[in-house]
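Consider the tokenized backbone below.
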């Protein structure tokens, strides 16, 4: 399944971090050159993705990027136009959904309103011919996992949104599936409950060793919950890696902008000296950065600089990095930090300044600095 990167064109550099996109040593789930088309519209083309047993992998991207379509192909609700989908070394793309041993949790919960909590959770077991006595024991165990055993006699309409989502999760777990698929499961919850459910699902994943494939468009949610994140854009994976990799070392401009907030500084490579390069911006900044593979003097380059990496203050310093005088245009108080907008002849930057760095207000003059390790060159 190995794929070789395309040769770099003159004046073009790249960061290649894997040969087969998203490869793992012993994949439990494998998408191999999967394509999905609806008539003339191709939603996913020639996509590879490996997921290890016990991993929590989030498919992250904007609406229409293909992430939900890929999940539905894994669940069996959509058929691939081309390629293969395997689980545990066996092809599953020709199997109906009920023979794939996968639990699915949807955003709208999909609970039966006329059934009790216990009956909703028992439904997958009943469809599989499990005896009544065994069903009752397994339902109690599943409801214990989500701390809802005391409410098993209630109807869905008598539960809060968070409780209904827990019931949907218990129903997905009750038959001990090999894989749990979640399609925007927390999208309908308020912020506080959503954050609590993120931690609860993450704790269940760790305790039970579940293999979870989780679809979301919420960057914070993916960073909080995942072992790895696959960032989707127009039906392809722009980058896959740990939350730290995705956030601190974005491969492309799209990933840098989509994951959190960043400053993007366009410039030209002035020189390359071993592992370091100097990028000169039109505003006169000379940025010392880690050189990307194939980078050469004269190449155009875009540098990603996260707002929290910039230090403000008259004593600011960054050995071998950028250090310049600037002025505060605007400062918004966020409790634990200020969101500061800088503007001067050098560049326009957004800074997240810890309160320990000081209090900021429009019109203040200060200095800004950041180190070479805080800069990351991204592809267009």
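A designed sequence for it:
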């Amino acid at each position: 399944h190995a794929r070789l990167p395309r040769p770099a064109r003159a004046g073009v550099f790249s960061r290649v971090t894997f040969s087969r996109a998203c490869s793992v040593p012993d994949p439990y789930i494998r998408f191999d050159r999967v394509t999905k088309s609806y008539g003339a519209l191709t939603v996913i083309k020639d996509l590879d993705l490996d997921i290890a047993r016990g991993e929590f992998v989030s498919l992250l991207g904007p609406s229409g990027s293909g992430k939900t379509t890929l999940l539905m192909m894994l669940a069996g609700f959509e058929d691939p136009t081309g390629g293969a989908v395997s689980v545990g070394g066996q092809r599953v793309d020709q199997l109906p959904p009920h023979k794939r041993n996968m639990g699915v949790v949807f955003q709208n919960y999909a609970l039966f309103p006329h059934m009790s909590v216990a009956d909703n959770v028992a439904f997958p077991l009943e469809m599989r011919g499990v005896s009544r006595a065994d069903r009752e024991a397994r339902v109690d165990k599943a409801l214990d996992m989500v701390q809802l055993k005391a409410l098993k006699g209630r109807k869905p309409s008598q539960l809060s949104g968070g409780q209904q989502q827990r019931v949907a999760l218990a129903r997905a777990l009750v038959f001990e599936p090999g894989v749990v698929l979640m399609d925007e499961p927390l999208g309908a919850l308020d912020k506080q409950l959503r954050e609590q459910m993120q931690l609860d699902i993450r704790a269940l994943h760790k305790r039970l060793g579940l293999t979870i494939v989780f679809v979301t468009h919420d960057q914070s949610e993916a960073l909080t919950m995942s072992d790895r994140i696959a960032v989707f854009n127009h039906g392809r994976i722009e980058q896959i890696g740990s939350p730290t990799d995705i956030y601190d070392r974005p491969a492309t401009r799209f990933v840098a902008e989509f994951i959190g907030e960043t400053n993007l500084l366009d410039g030209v490579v002035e020189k390359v000296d071993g592992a370091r390069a100097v990028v000169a911006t039109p505003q006169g900044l000379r940025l010392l950065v880690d050189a990307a593979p194939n980078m050469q003097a004269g190449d155009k380059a875009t540098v990603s600089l996260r707002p929290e990496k910039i230090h403000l203050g008259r004593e600011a310093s960054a050995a071998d990095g950028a250090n310049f005088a600037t002025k505060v245009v605007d400062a918004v108080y966020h409790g634990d930090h200020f969101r500061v907008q800088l503007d001067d002849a050098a560049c326009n930057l957004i800074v997240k300044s810890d309160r320990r760095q000081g209090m900021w207000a429009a019109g203040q003059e200060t200095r800004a600095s950041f180190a070479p390790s805080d800069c990351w060159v991204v592809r267009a």
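Helices lie at 67-75, 117-127, 132-145, 161-173, 191-208, 219-225, 243-248, 253-258.
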